[in-house]
């Protein structure tokens, strides 16, 4: 049913589905696209903010994107066919929105053309339309949430580096540090720079 991926939580009280939809993939192609998006966008975002903040913001972006989707879906579905929001792509667009709004660069290369950095996510949104089982509305909601956070409208989600450093030393983040093959990024900028230089 249309909108089932996120619409159901509001009716059934299954609040957990406001986060778990990012782990839902229709087939191998969409799973592969999701894996590439997670590796490219989430990886670079994590390097800039640390693992703790990345995990917290991933959950926050997931919930906020889902709530915005639930709000807009009844309105947009009157005009267009709205696909279910599934997979990591809405959160990836949120992280891309944060990165571009806070970037010090004015222009960047996009498929060989120099374009303003702030337009990159919007070009990406058009490209993502062709990804199998991708939801344009879901991706748009993620991008709007990310840009709002990047511009400082979601300042309640920010916390000082000292808090991130403290959380580095508590469960479950202490467990993440011990997983072989997983690169843990410290919450402190000084520690991140030291780990990059070592």
Describe the structure.
- With 198 residues, the chain is mainly alpha-helical.
- The protein has a domain of 131 residues.
- 60% of the residues lie in helices and 4% in strands.
- The chain contains ten helices and two strands.
- It has a two-stranded antiparallel sheet.
- A hairpin with a 2-residue loop joins strand 1 and strand 2.
- Helix 3 runs parallel beside helix 5, helix 5 runs antiparallel to helix 6 and helix 5 packs parallel to helix 7.
- The radius of gyration is 17 Å and the shape is globular.
- It starts with a helix and ends with a helix.
- The model has no long low-confidence stretch (mean pLDDT 78).
Summarize the structure.
The protein is mostly helical. The protein is 60% helix and 4% strand. The protein has 10 helices and 2 strands, in the order αααααββααααα.
Identify the notable features of this structure and list them briefly:
single chain; 198 residues; mainly alpha; 2 strands; globular; transmembrane; membrane; RHBD2 protein; serine-type endopeptidase activity
Instruction: Give me the number of helical elements.
Output: 10
Give the N-to-C terminal Cα separation.
52 Å
Strand content: under 5%
The number of distinct β-strands equals 2
Main sheet strand line-up: 1-2
Largest sheet: 2 strands, antiparallel
Shape: globular
**Quaternary organization:** single chain
Helix amount: 55-70%
User: What structural category do the secondary elements indicate?
Assistant: mainly alpha
Extract low-pLDDT stretches: none
Mean pLDDT: 78
Give me the strand/helix succession: HHHHHEEHHHHH
């Amino acid at each position: 049913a249309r909108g089932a991926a996120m619409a159901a939580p509001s009716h059934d009280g299954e609040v957990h589905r406001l986060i778990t939809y990012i782990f839902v993939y229709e087939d191998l192609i969409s799973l592969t696209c999701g894996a590439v998006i997670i590796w490219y966008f989430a990886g670079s975002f994590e390097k800039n903010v640390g693992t703790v903040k990345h995990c917290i913001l991933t959950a926050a972006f997931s919930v906020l994107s889902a709530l915005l989707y639930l709000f807009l879906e009844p309105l947009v579905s009157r005009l267009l066919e709205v696909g279910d929001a599934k997979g990591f792509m809405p959160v990836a667009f949120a992280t891309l929105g944060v990165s571009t709004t806070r970037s010090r660069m004015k222009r960047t290369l996009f498929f060989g053309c120099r374009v303003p950095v702030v337009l990159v996510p919007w070009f990406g949104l058009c490209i993502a339309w062709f990804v199998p089982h991708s939801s344009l509305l879901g991706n748009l909601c993620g991008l709007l949430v990310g840009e709002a956070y990047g511009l400082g409208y979601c300042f309640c989600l920010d916390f000082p580096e000292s808090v991130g450093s403290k959380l580095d030393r508590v469960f479950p983040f202490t467990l993440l540090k011990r997983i072989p093959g997983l690169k843990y990024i410290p919450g402190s900028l000084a520690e991140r720079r030291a780990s990059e230089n070592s």
